[in-house]
Automatic annotation (TrEMBL):
<dbReference type="InterPro" id="IPR006811">
    <property type="entry name" value="RNA_pol_II_suA"/>
</dbReference>
<protein>
    <recommendedName>
        <fullName>RNA polymerase II subunit A C-terminal domain phosphatase SSU72</fullName>
        <ecNumber>3.1.3.16</ecNumber>
    </recommendedName>
</protein>
<keyword id="KW-0507">mRNA processing</keyword>
<dbReference type="GO" id="GO:0031124">
    <property type="term" value="P:mRNA 3'-end processing"/>
</dbReference>
<comment type="function">
    <text>Protein phosphatase that catalyzes the dephosphorylation of the C-terminal domain of RNA polymerase II. Plays a role in RNA processing and termination.</text>
</comment>
<dbReference type="GO" id="GO:0008420">
    <property type="term" value="F:RNA polymerase II CTD heptapeptide repeat phosphatase activity"/>
</dbReference>
<feature type="coiled-coil region">
    <location>
        <begin position="158"/>
        <end position="185"/>
    </location>
</feature>
<keyword id="KW-0175">Coiled coil</keyword>
<keyword id="KW-0378">Hydrolase</keyword>
<dbReference type="Pfam" id="PF04722">
    <property type="entry name" value="Ssu72"/>
</dbReference>
<keyword id="KW-0539">Nucleus</keyword>
<keyword id="KW-0904">Protein phosphatase</keyword>
<dbReference type="GO" id="GO:0005634">
    <property type="term" value="C:nucleus"/>
</dbReference>
<comment type="similarity">
    <text>Belongs to the SSU72 phosphatase family.</text>
</comment>
Length: 194
């Protein structure tokens, strides 16, 4: 598997800002990518830390956008949530939950160690259908707009590096070590079977 043939997934926590930013950047560069949340619902910041806006995965981005405009357009414009939802709805209709997807991927990127553990646990609990390998790679990205953008470009750089390999299974350890040294970010890597 070489070049743009890689099937990629990006998974982050329940607000999906980081995975959707990476989805957009990878998609623009021609990668076959999907993005997911790992929680049971979508949680977006609310008027206070203890009052998030909670939506199920069947709620479209348009519905979330309209709901937040009706609740407090000024607040959700100032904190960037409406901008984020506007971007998201241009990418796809609604959020997706990783645990509900059984498609095959070559590489799954996660954006925090807790989500990495959830993905590994979910894949281990599934009965493999053809024992195809998937590389699960975590790169920690803070959950804010600036870091989401930086993280998306780091994931793109890593995806481009991986896509140039003629034998990803054989080359991946060296590629990840080189990327860690260059980016000064530590990675987690595991192989699971699908």
């Amino acid at each position: 598997m070489t070049g743009r043939d890689l099937r990629l997934a990006v998974v982050c926590s329940s607000n999906q800002n980081r995975s959707m930013e990476a989805h957009q950047v990878l998609n623009k560069k021609g990668f076959n990518v999907r993005s997911f949340g790992s929680g049971n619902c979508v949680k977006l910041p609310g008027p206070s830390f203890d009052k998030p806006n909670i939506y199920d995965f069947n709620t479209t981005y348009d519905q979330m956008y309209t709901d937040l405009i009706n609740k407090d357009k000024t607040l959700y414009t100032q904190n960037g949530i409406l901008h984020m939802l506007d971007r998201n709805r241009r990418i796809k209709q609604k959020p997706e939950r990783f645990h509900d997807c059984f498609d095959k991927f070559d590489v799954i990127f996660t954006c925090e160690e807790r989500v990495y553990d959830q993905v590994i646990e979910e894949l281990a609990a599934r009965i493999p259908t053809d024992n195809s390998k998937v590389h699960v790679i975590n790169i920690d990205i803070q959950d804010n707009h600036e870091e989401a953008t930086i993280g998306a470009f780091l994931i793109l750089e890593l995806a481009q590096l991986l896509s140039q390999s003629d034998d990803l299974d054989n080359d991946i350890d060296e590629l990840l070590q080189d990327f860690e040294a260059k980016s000064e970010r530590s990675l987690l890597h595991s192989i699971a079977f699908q």
